[in-house]
User: Fold this.
Amino acid sequence: MKRGGKRLLVLTAAVVYSYAIAFGQSVPSESANSSQYLQHATRGVETLQGWYEKGTGLYKTTGWWNSANAITVLADYSKAANTQEYVSTFANTFTEAQKTNAGFLNRYYDDEGWWALAWIDVYDLTGDARYLQMAQSIFGDMAGGWDTATCGGGIWWSKDKTYKNAIANELFLSVAAHLANRVANRQAALYGDWSRREWEWFSASGMINAQHLINDGLNSSTPTACKNNDQTTWSYNQGVILGALAEFSRFSADRTLISGARAIATSATTHLVDAKGILHDPCEPKCGADGPQFKGIFVRNLMQLYELNPDPAYRSFVEINADSIWNATRGADYKFGLVWSGPFNQADAATHSSALEAIIAAAVMRHDR
Assistant:
């Protein structure tokens, strides 16, 4: 996705919190406790399901790939709340959504990656092997997008083969690493090898800039000398890589991957926020159909990094944003809007599910405290 906009260059409150913690200072907090965050999340999930359309298995008011993220949010909530209440919803989407795109495949490799990760999350929750098998099938199609003639490697954004961008390749890495940790023996080695190939290419591609932020993609006008296109550093591009590297680190036991992820996380929580530490994308307050989903993806993946690297600064960052969502951008019927610092404008399944991910993350991270 390519949109213009100016980056926000201000100090995050999360960094201030980390300094205080490092020097043994107390950090005042008005955050909710884990139980309260979970109550907030339950309200939010009930509202989210008001957009769910049983006949299609998708969410009204938003798109195909956004619905994959909404399913992921529902799975994340179910794990946090230790509930099987939505198992039938997952099964319904698995059947009905394939009437829109069989096998969860379409022209866009990033769309496919979102659905693969959604079904891996559902597999983790339910243990139902068909969800893992679907993710493997989707990954097989994504791997068909790998190409070395342009930019020396990586997968294309779409099957039109016009653009190599960050999000498709981050998702490819993440799906590969997640699968490597969930299958056995030779299959695991295959996915682990794909993870290694993708990260070696991605980390050398130039998409990670000098600030440790990831730009949108590559300029391939000279296919053998591709360069960072210096386009927008969207929040979701800083996010997906965190979860991907955390999973690859689990598989490979390579802690340098966590160091790389930390550099990106610190930069994102420093440069993509306002003076109060609230996360923003530069498209706000009008982000089209795609942008409203981005910030929740960042927080979800920061939570995955936190599981391996429980930095208090990450938890503080998430709580600051979750509290602001609840207090400043909550509308009637517990609907959450686009701008997390407020005020509430309007909500749809994309803005709501994105914000809901931050509240779920706060519940999980506070519980681990």
Observations:
- Residues 1-30 have pLDDT under 50 and may be disordered.
- The first helix runs from residue 13 to 22.
